[in-house]
Amino acid sequence: LELIQEQSDIASKEMSLEKALDKMLGEWRPVEFDCMEYRDTGTYILRALDDIQGLFDDHIVKTQAMRGSPFVKPFESRMREWETKLISMQEIIDEWLKCQSVWLYLEPIFSSEDIMRQMPQEAKRFTQVDRMWRKTMSRTAAKPNVLQATAEEGMHKSFQEANRLLEQIQQGLNDYLEKKRLSFARLFFLSNDELLQILSETKDPLRVQPHLKKCFEGISSLDFDEAKIISAMYSVEGERVPFNEKIDPNAANGMVEKWMLQVEFAMKACLAKLTRAANADYTTKARTQWVLDWPGMVVLAVDQLFWTAETEVALDANGLAGL
Fold first, then answer.
1. What is the CATH number of the domain that holds 250?
2. Choosing a second label site near 95 at 20 to 30 A (CA), which of 81, 102, 183, 300?
3. How far is residue 198's CA from residue 249's CA, in Å, rounded to a whole number?
4. Torsions phi, psi for 313 (to 5 deg)
């Protein structure tokens, strides 16, 4: 009788484990990915994966605990297959989300024709990843069941390859931005996103305007005419300072750093010229009029120049008493 009772207990525990396994499978069958249309890209992205992730965490722990039970023998191979399936699904989704995160960052960058033209190798790689992403998301949106979607042959390898290409693209992008900054050091004051906003629309030099104050502390904006030729700069106070020569950004052939370097040179050249002229004009008219005739920065510089010169004359003539 004891032997019968023992066998009955073993059978009950084995059945309990098998029912628990069937329950896990049953919980996964209705689970679907939530695919959302992403802006006007014509494709989808995954969202709201917290519940799916929670189910993974719960079931992986349960499965590992069940595999350690002495009563799992009759269906051990089935349990092992299920554990392998869970881990495989988790790895696929991890790679999927990693790919999505980088794709979301790079998609607006490589939707710019200017960036595509300036970075042909990276553009080619992104096109390859983008094609794979759209195909996968289109298929998933049509059949969002998690068990089916992650059972596609070669899916894990596809996402691994996509992430490898995305890493190369990001490295190429960083190298490209570094090259631009080394060509014009003031671009180091801009973040990657800010610099990319400028580089993504090189045909429109006005895109630089919002970022000028970071590159040139004293310049609020540049004066562009209808042909987008630069003739002057404006201070934060709204004071207009004309350049000695006009600058044509279009002649830089999309090289933003090239015409911004010209702006830096023009800024220094016009201020140097104005400072020399204001210095010569200082003694020819009343100070109240002279102050109004010249830009504020020039007035401050020349005023300090004359103050220093007059102070030196006083010290040379009478020492400290001369002050």
1. 3.20.180.20
2. 81
3. 13
4. -60, -45
